[in-house]
Design goal:
The chain is mostly helical and about 525 residues long. It is built from 20 helices and four strands. Helix content is about 70%, strand content about 0%.
């Protein structure tokens, strides 16, 4: 029986409004398609996506060595922040341009810019040039993930697309852990510059695959560049990411710098909304928010980003401090989480293609995510290692069940002519959520850690321990009584933070329950 109110995108609606109609919920048949011609294109897109996501984290473990060689410790944070700011700003720009002029030339251009940044970084002789290289990489990298997901929408119908999106989600999750591991391995076994040089053969291969195998329709749309939208968005995004990066670390949360950044973020976010309302071709059209499923899926994705990256930001430090392992081993200990994420993402992708049913997936994702966070909140210093790893696996399954399916829900809510803009907007807010997740967890964790150490150390002991310079090796060298206090404080400071994220997951569960299960389209638009 048909359901009243199920949303189906109207391809004739150029502003992206979603019309309401009577549609049967029964899944549409999947046409028999030969997938062989898709494989080389898909391989190139996976490489592009891997490069873009990997470089968000690859330098996190190499930074101490880089700073020691190039100097400029005061600018160390910008090595990561420059990439994050540039890539986040570029996401909606690539998404919009791809819808207007086509995506083949854009992804080749984005890969070329990314490789140019890699060459600059590989040859960098100072921190200034290294930061410039990371910014250039970010300008290209912002398009790699967005364009990869949008190009799949150009060549594969939504129903069939879910299995490809599942693999993409698995690659994205893998890069979250592989980045720090590769950075550490390059630094210890070869040289940190190989974190740049390794991009060249992979990037050239991705360009070649796109150039020879990617066949996309041409667009003749006239570009009306949303200048004020881009400017206001860039300032707002920069302020938000600096707040997330500097708050509680470089500057106190109540410092004039952070308060000024909060004011700038608020003012320019408001100006951005005004600019998008007036623009003829807005970079993030406000009409997207008329789609119920877009709003619900984007908010849910933002919550998943906050929870996933909030946990990932401090779990390696927790593992090193509490279990006593080194940086490389702590990264390897996150593999169960990534295995769970990959399993969840690939399985949901295949099931969505086979059955056409997907609403249960983000619901299960929120339940699994909440369960994983609650289990992590029960950790103790003496928790067996296998138990800790199993908890990480549960958290990973929770993230994997929903991450890419929510992107698919967004893509299915709009005509293919708007899929790049919609996908970019969804990823844009998730990236903001990831930045805020690390900041939220960091603020709660460091504040609680300082209080616990001060409270638990014997008289005079607190002044003898500098938390800002405390490393795992330094902790192991402390007298046993003080070491036990520090280790216990790390455990008791971080585990309650996981509980503090649960209300957000519950809210996300409510949002995904409200998503309407619209049949996944089985055909591609011809115009």
């Amino acid at each position: 029986m048909p359901r009243l109110g199920d949303a189906r995108p109207d391809p004739a609606d150029k502003h992206g409004a979603v019309t309401q109609s009577l549609v049967p919920l029964a899944a549409e048949p999947v046409p028999q398609r030969g997938g062989r011609h898709i494989l080389p294109v898909f391989a190139g897109l996976l490489v592009a996506m891997l490069l873009g996501s990997l470089d968000q984290t690859v330098f996190s473990t190499a930074l101490p060595t880089i700073v020691g060689e190039l100097g400029g410790v005061n600018h160390m944070l910008w090595v990561t922040t420059a990439y994050l700011v540039a890539s986040t700003i570029m996401m909606p720009i690539y998404g919009k341009l791809g819808d207007l002029i086509g995506r083949k030339g854009l992804i080749i251009g984005a890969l070329t810019i990314f490789l140019a940044g890699s060459v600059i970084g590989g040859l960098a002789s100072s921190m200034t040039w290294l930061i410039v290289a990371r910014a250039v990489q970010g300008i290209g990298g912002g398009g790699l993930m967005i364009l990869s997901q949008a190009i799949i929408a150009d060549v594969v119908p939504v129903r069939e697309r879910s299995k490809y999106m599942g693999v993409m989600g698995a690659v994205f999750g893998l890069s979250a852990v592989a980045g720090p591991l590769l950075g550490g391995w390059f630094t210890e076994s070869a040289h940190w510059r190989w974190a740049f040089w390794i991009n060249l053969p992979l990037g050239v291969a991705a360009i070649a695959l796109a150039a020879f195998f990617l066949r996309l329709p041409r667009h003749d749309a006239r570009i009306r560049f949303d200048l004020w939208g881009v400017i206001t968005m860039a300032i707002a995004v920069t302020a938000i990411i600096l707040i997330a990066s500097w708050g509680g670390t470089e500057y106190e949360w109540g410092s004039p710098v952070i308060l000024s950044l909060i004011l700038v973020a608020t003012v320019f976010s408001t100006l951005f909304v005004i600019a998008e309302h007036r623009a003829s071709e807005p970079v993030i059209p406000l009409a997207l928010f008329k789609s119920r499923n877009f709003v619900l899926a984007t908010i849910a994705g933002l919550f998943i980003g906050i929870s996933m990256f909030g946990a990932l930001s401090y779990l390696p430090t927790y593992l090193q401090m509490v279990t006593g392992v080194n940086a490389t081993v702590s990264g390897l200990m996150l593999l169960p989480m990534i295995a769970g994420l990959m399993l969840g993402a690939v399985t949901t992708g295949q099931l969505a293609t086979t059955t056409g049913r997907y609403k249960w997936m983000p619901i299960a994702s929120m339940i699994g995510l909440g369960l994983g966070l609650w289990l992590l909140s029960t950790l103790r210093v003496d928790t067996p290692l296998w138990v800790l790893l199993s908890y990480l696996f549960v958290l990973g399954v929770g993230v994997g069940l929903g991450m890419q399916i929510l992107v698919l829900v967004v893509q299915n809510s709009f005509p293919d002519s708007q899929v790049g803009t919609a996908t970019a907007a969804n990823n844009f807010f998730r990236e903001i959520g990831a930045s805020l997740g690390g900041a939220i967890v960091g603020a709660l964790f460091t504040s609680r850690l300082t209080d616990l150490v001060t409270e638990r150390l014997p008289a005079g002991g607190a002044t003898a321990v500098d938390l800002n310079s405390l490393t795992p090796a330094a902790v192991r060298a402390l007298p046993e009584a003080i070491r036990d206090v520090i280790v216990g404080a790390y455990n008791d400071a971080l585990t309650p933070v996981f509980v503090s994220l649960l209300p957000m997951v519950v809210a996300g569960l409510v949002f995904v329950v409200l998503i309407k299960e619209v049949p996944l389209r089985s055909g591609l638009e011809t115009s």
